[in-house]
Specification:
Number of helices: 24
Strand order of the largest sheet: 3-2-5-6
Radius of gyration: 31 Å
Number of strands: 8
Distance between the termini: 69 Å
Structural class: alpha+beta
C-alpha cells in the first residue's frame, strides 16, 4: 500500500514542470548545461547572465533568492535542518535577482586584454598536409589529385580506400585521371610530414618511416625486412622464430625490435581531430586541516539573475495585466533555483563520496573501497536514481587527476578476513604485478590469481582475465620480451 502510494505520488510529481526541469538539469554535464542555458537566455528576456552585465557602481551583491519554494507553492525539502557541507549558495552567492557587486566578475577591458582567447586552433591532419602540398612544385592538376587522396585519409593517417574506387569517385572532377596518376600522387603524399601518412596498412606505414631514416642507421635494413615480411611473427612475440628468419642473434634482434618500437603506428593521431570533447571539472578536491574537502569550481558555474529592466517593466504593468511577463519571471526564478539546487546536490554527493574514499586520495587506487549508489543515497537523503544522474558526466579535479564521480563506485570481492576489496583496487594490484614482472617470464592469469589469494583476496582466473582486458593489458604470451 505504501509502495503504491509512493508510486502514485511519483507519477504526479513528474507532471510538475519545475521538477521535470530539475531532473533534466541534473542529467546534463556542465558543458551541456551551459548550452541549455543559452537557449533559455534567448527565450526568456527576464533572465540574463550576471557575469556579462556591468553593475552600477556602488551596488552590493544581493544574497541568492530565499523562499523560492514558498513562492512556487511547494513544501520545504525534507533535508532542511540537516547539517551539511557549505552549500553552493552560501559558498558563492552567485545567483541573485539583483546585479552582482563590482568585485564579482571580470571587467570588460580585462576580457579584451586576454589574448589567449585568440590562440589558433590545432590544425587537423588534412589541413597540415594541404598546407605542405600548396608549397610543392606540383602542377595544379597533380595538387588536386593529391588533395583528393588527403581528404580520404582516416584519423590515423591511413588510406583505406582502393585506388580504383578513388579513381571512379574522382572522374567527375578530373575526367582523365588514371590509376598511374593516383599512384604518383600517393607517392607525393607519402613524402609529406608526418612520415608514414598515406600508407595502406601498418607494414607500409612502418616501412615508410624506416626508409626515411639515413641508410647508415644501425639495423635499418633488417628492420625493414622485419616489418614488411615478418610483422605477424613479431606480434606473436615468437622471438626464436624471428632470429631464424632474419638470421640474427638475440642481441641483434633486440636492437632491431627497439628500432621498430621507436616508430609511430598512427602518425595522424598527433593532429587535431576537429571534434574535440571537453571535460569541465565541476568540483575541486583538496586536503585542508587534515581532511579532504570538496568545493565547487567557480569557473564552471553559470552566473544568472533576473533582468532588472524587464522586472521594472513587469512591476509597472501589473495593474494592466502583464500575465506573459509574470509567467516568464516565474520560469526564470525556477531556473535560477534549479541550477542552484543542481550544484548544491553535486557538492553534497561529492563530499559524501570523498568522505568514504579518503584512502584513495591518500594512497591511490589500491586503497579504493567498495561503494554502491545506495550508500551515498542514504547518506545524503536522495534516491539512488538521483545519485546516478548526479555522478554521470560530472567530474572532480583532485591531486591525483580528473575523475568522473561514477569512477568511485564499484563492486566488491570478499577477502579471507571477512572484509571486502573493491574491483578498482584489484585492477590496480593486477597493474602493479604486471609492471613488476620478469619480461622473460610474464605472469599468467592463473599465477596472478594465486598471488592475490596469498594476499587474502580470492579472485578467479576468469575474473583476473576480465580485469586485465579492461586495463588493456595483453595476455602473458604477448607480454614476453627477449
Amino acid at each position: 500500500m505504501k509502495h503504491s502510494l509512493q508510486l502514485k505520488l511519483s507519477q504526479h510529481l513528474t507532471l510538475t514542470p519545475q521538477l521535470q526541469q530539475s531532473i533534466r538539469l541534473l542529467q546534463l554535464s556542465t558543458v551541456e548545461l551551459n548550452q541549455e542555458l543559452e537557449r533559455y537566455l534567448l527565450e526568456n528576456p527576464l533572465l540574463e547572465r550576471a557575469d556579462l552585465a556591468t553593475p552600477e557602481e556602488g551596488e552590493a551583491a544581493a544574497p541568492p533568492p530565499n523562499g523560492a519554494a514558498s513562492e512556487s507553492g511547494e513544501a520545504p525539502s525534507a533535508d532542511e535542518g540537516r547539517e551539511e557541507p557549505p552549500s553552493y549558495a552560501e559558498d558563492h552567492a552567485q545567483f541573485s535577482e539583483e546585479p552582482i557587486g563590482a568585485g564579482g566578475g571580470r571587467r570588460d577591458d580585462e576580457e579584451r586584454d586576454d589574448f589567449t582567447q585568440f590562440a589558433a586552433a590545432e590544425p587537423t591532419l588534412q589541413e597540415h598536409l594541404l598546407q605542405q602540398l600548396s608549397l610543392t612544385g606540383l602542377t595544379q592538376r597533380d595538387k588536386r589529385i593529391a588533395a583528393m587522396l588527403v581528404a580520404h585519409l582516416d584519423e590515423d593517417g591511413y588510406l583505406k580506400s582502393e585506388l580504383e574506387e578513388l579513381r571512379e569517385a574522382t572522374m567527375a572532377a578530373i575526367p582523365d585521371v588514371e590509376i598511374e596518376d593516383l599512384q604518383i600522387a600517393l607517392k607525393h603524399v607519402q613524402h609529406l610530414e608526418p612520415t608514414g601518412v598515406g600508407a595502406r596498412d601498418l607494414a607500409e606505414c612502418l616501412e615508410l618511416q624506416l626508409r626515411a631514416m639515413p641508410e647508415a642507421t644501425p639495423r635499418r635494413d633488417r628492420a625493414i625486412e622485419l616489418v614488411t615480411k615478418h610483422l605477424d611473427v613479431l606480434a606473436a612475440r615468437d622471438f626464436n622464430r624471428l632470429k631464424r628468419l632474419l638470421g640474427v642473434d638475440e642481441d641483434e634482434l633486440r636492437d632491431i625490435r627497439s628500432l621498430v618500437l621507436t616508430l609511430d603506428p598512427k602518425p595522424g593521431r598527433a593532429f587535431g581531430q576537429g571534434d574535440v570533447r571537453y571535460v569541465v571539472s565541476d568540483v575541486l578536491v583538496r586536503k585542508a586541516g587534515g581532511r579532504w574537502i570538496a568545493s565547487l569550481n567557480r569557473d564552471a558555474m553559470p552566473r544568472l539573475r533576473i533582468n532588472k529592466m524587464y522586472a521594472d517593466i513587469l512591476q509597472a504593468s501589473r495593474e494592466n495585466g502583464g500575465k506573459h511577463l509574470a509567467g516568464q519571471l516565474q520560469e526564470a526564478r525556477w531556473l535560477i533555483k534549479n541550477v542552484q539546487q543542481r550544484f548544491d546536490t553535486i557538492l553534497r554527493v561529492t563530499q559524501a563520496i570523498v568522505d568514504r574514499q579518503k584512502n584513495f586520495f591518500e594512497h591511490g587506487e589500491v586503497a579504493m573501497r567498495p561503494l554502491v549508489l545506495r550508500e551515498i543515497a542514504e547518506a545524503v537523503g536522495l534516491h539512488e536514481s538521483t545519485i546516478s544522474r548526479v555522478t554521470t558526466q560530472k567530474y572532480m579535479l583532485t591531486p591525483r587527476g580528473i575523475f568522473e564521480l561514477k569512477y568511485f563506485f564499484g563492486s566488491h570481492v570478499s577477502t579471507d578476513t571477512g572484509g571486502a576489496c573493491s574491483a578498482t583496487a584489484i585492477r590496480a594490484l593486477i597493474k602493479q604485478l604486471v609492471a613488476a614482472e620478469d619480461g622473460k617470464k610474464p605472469l599468467s592469469d592463473h599465477r596472478i590469481s594465486d598471488i592475490l589469494a596469498q594476499q587474502g583476496i580470492q579472485v578467479a582466473r576468469r575474473t583476473v582475465a576480465k580485469y586485465r582486458e579492461a586495463l588493456h593489458i595483453q595476455p602473458a604470451n604477448l607480454r614476453k620480451s627477449i
